[in-house]
Predict the structure.
Amino acid sequence: MKKNIEVDKKEGEVIVEIEVPRRNYVKEPIISFRTKDIALLLEKEGIKVDSCVQTDTIYNDGRHPKTEGRWVFKLKKEKKEQKKPTTKEIKTVSNLTNENKSDKMVSKTKNIKKRK
């Protein structure tokens, strides 16, 4: 198997070209590559890709096997970390006059006599 991986950071693309040998005898293994296999291969190589632009499938089995393939992927863009604006916590101070008024209201309601 021959593989060629070209990373073009200027264009933001990864081009993968793979060639597998033709299968002549039954004892030889059947080899096939699909887009998901190439994505896993790139992940193992440490190349982060986003989406596939050009897909392909290759295999070495059958009367007319397709033994060469080319895939094009978009590179994953690295996001820059944005600093969050700092916020100051504002402590709320309870108003003493409001608390006094509510106490007075409670005391007035307690002193009211019930009518029969």
Remarks:
- The helical segments are 35-45, 96-111.
